Amino acid sequence: MGSPAQTTLNFPGASSAHFYLHWGSPHYQIPNMAAYVFETWSNGLDWSLDGYRSYVEALKIQDLPTEEGPARKDAHKWGVEHSYNYTFTEDGQVSFTYAHRPIGGDGYAPVDSGASRFDLYQAALKWRRELRANVYKRLLRHGLRSGIEDYDLDLIECEYRTASETRPGVAESTSAQAFHRGHECFTSGCAQPLTLDPAAQS
Ligand SMILES: [Zn+2]
After folding, report:
1. What letter would DSSP give residue 175?
2. Predicted ipTM?
3. What pLDDT, in 10s, does the model give residues 75-95?
4. 34-65 pLDDT, tens per residue?
5. Ligand 1 centre and the CA of 164: distance in Å?
6. In the beta sheet, which residues pair with residue 86?
7. Cα 145 to Cα 1: distance, rounded to the nearest angstrom
8. CA distance 10 to 98
9. Cα of 184 from ligand 1 centre, angstroms
10. Which of 16, 19, 140, 187 could form a disulfide with 7 if both were Cys (CB 3.0 to 4.6 A apart)?
11. Least confident of 52-56, 126-130, 170-174, 186-190
12. Cα(6) to centroid of ligand 1, in Å?
């Protein structure tokens, strides 16, 4: 029966689009959008609707919504359970909201929101932790000793993004290139290496 989601993306230059996805749980959708944002920042890609479309096309899997359509004002009548809204700026900042409609209800209650890439990465980490815990419990119930590895890797990715974003100067930067231009990478090697363990830097 699915768990349908409507996602609105607002990019600079008043370009917005609405996307529909049959399975739109935040456990996947928020981390997947965090991955899109991190890839766009890391590779210096355009913060644009076309950039998003190329990214999801390149994935060739239904990780993020690709089906565009009109805004569904009475989204609940269409069975939409999850409602996401992302606003990007030219310099790669992002704000977002996620609202959920209880089964049978006609209203959406806010569940999650943020005003920066860091907030999105943190939200992704939180949802992935919850997903991993759910999967782990299920595995234990079935007496299984494996099957959690992919979820562990997902968590490491989420932590990596968060660690990247907390380096001084990253949050204000449009892209990785812009960030590295801000310090003496070329003469001394990158002065701010990325590490998953902040203590290892001291
Ligand atoms: Zn650098």
Report:
1. S
2. 0.98
3. 777 788 999 999 999 889 999
4. 999 999 999 999 999 999 999 998 876 668 99
5. 12
6. 9, 96
7. 30
8. 14
9. 7
10. 19
11. 186-190
12. 38
The tokens of 19 are what? Answer: 């996307």
CB 175 within 8 A of CB 92: yes
Phi, psi values for residue 25, rounded to 5°:
-60, 140
Report how far ligand 1's centroid is from the alpha carbon of 17 (Å): 35
- Distance from the alpha carbon of residue 41 to the mean position of ligand 1, in angstroms: 14
Q: How far, CA to CA in Å, does 65 sit from each of 2, 33, 133, 197, 200?
A: 14, 10, 25, 33, 38
What's the CA-to-centroid distance between 199 and ligand 1, angstroms? 19
84 CA to middle of ligand 1, Å? 33
List, for residues 138-149, the tens digit of each pLDDT value: 999 999 888 899
Distance 115 CA to ligand 1 centre (A): 25
| Span from the CA of 165 to the centroid of ligand 1 (angstroms) | 13
CB 94 within 8 A of CB 120: yes
* Euclidean distance between CA atoms 96 and 114, whole angstroms: 5
Output the pLDDT for position 153.
93
Spatial separation of the C-alpha atoms in residues 103 and 81, rounded to whole Å: 7
